[in-house]
Amino acid sequence: MSSASRLTTTSYAVLGLLAIQPWSTYELTRQMDRSLGRVWPRAASKLYEEPKKLVAHGLATSRQERVGKRPRTVYAITDAGRQALAEWLQRPSEGPVLESEQVLKVFFADQGTRDDALATVAAARAWAEERNAANRDVGQAYLAGEGAFQERLATNMIAGRFLTDFYRMVSEWADWATGQIEQWPDDPQRAEPDMDAVRETVRRATW
Amino acid sequence: MSSASRLTTTSYAVLGLLAIQPWSTYELTRQMDRSLGRVWPRAASKLYEEPKKLVAHGLATSRQERVGKRPRTVYAITDAGRQALAEWLQRPSEGPVLESEQVLKVFFADQGTRDDALATVAAARAWAEERNAANRDVGQAYLAGEGAFQERLATNMIAGRFLTDFYRMVSEWADWATGQIEQWPDDPQRAEPDMDAVRETVRRATW
DNA sequence: TTCTTCATGTAATTAGTTACATGATTGA
DNA sequence: TCAATCATGTAACTAATTACATGAAGAA
Fold first, then answer.
1. pTM across the whole model
2. Residue B10 contacts strand D, CB under 7 A
């Protein structure tokens, strides 16, 4: 019995990190902040829970260390863990899930002011630039031979490129949206749709 | 007190729909499926809960109708609701949240086979094409003058364009990734990073 | 008239977050 | 030596999901 509850994608995300090397829980949270969290964001406290589940399933082992008189836990993957990870990699995946409060607000922009809408897309642009800069720094570190886990560069790059493309897309969309909204009158309810832009958008959606 | 718990972004998403017109709960779930759900996905059952909260806060009213002898509830926004919505539109928003099991798997692709990785990116591409087709159909309906809520086209288009751009980006990324992975040897652990591709990616990230 | 799908919810469960507590380390 | 930050967790809470139940309408 013991069951220990089903493994989720988050469990496998942690398991994947353990496949690289053993980590203490805190180190796992650092990795989440830096890399993994961009495509699978979870709160730090979750990372204190999930490895226990992996241990209960026999996919990881835990070892107590101490720092001063304070204990800490370091987790390592088992052979069964590597096998479970490999099986997971063969299974079909869910498509991307996107949540954007900003786009949601743009969708309802006619209920607010034109300036609200402009501020919202400007915030989206700022967000994209900031994320992009951090992401680009990682890439540059690799180019300089300073990236952590150089041996993982081939896979890292493909995921990193996804982020680069995404941030760039958000930024370009924000610029385009700014241009559109600037053409609105003060009361967005009276905004006339730019039919040329609609046509161009439909064309862009036709590959 | 009564408090009725705090309003979340999901509450405002529903409130925004009610600002367009009154809807029954089921109709709200339809809208989620069709439009809103692409940027703020929530399960149908949530849409049976949230409007009650809006009513408790005085932001909406509910009216019982019947279909046969079966009752159903139709919600409408109040003036206070419109005001709350307008205030929400002025507030700062969270940036986009992206979750991708597929990119996660690519990140750990060296723990599986090359074919697994190819299958995963192919699935991402298929997902993007499918979503894109549905999204494009909406745009084409508008062009044909058949879109629902033509008066909302100006705002709809900006949100719709975000989706178009996103699906396109995913699809192009998947093609690029396929080309990269095809160069890997059978065992992805031995994959040599394509340094030219790294350089090009860093350049793309430099605006 | 029965089966299927559409429609309208409620209940049970869970995955995840926020808040809290506290020891260790560093540096002003 | 005091404050701030890094590190290590647990507890309380909640937002959201899945599962379930059932009536109505339309199709076979």
1. 0.96
2. yes
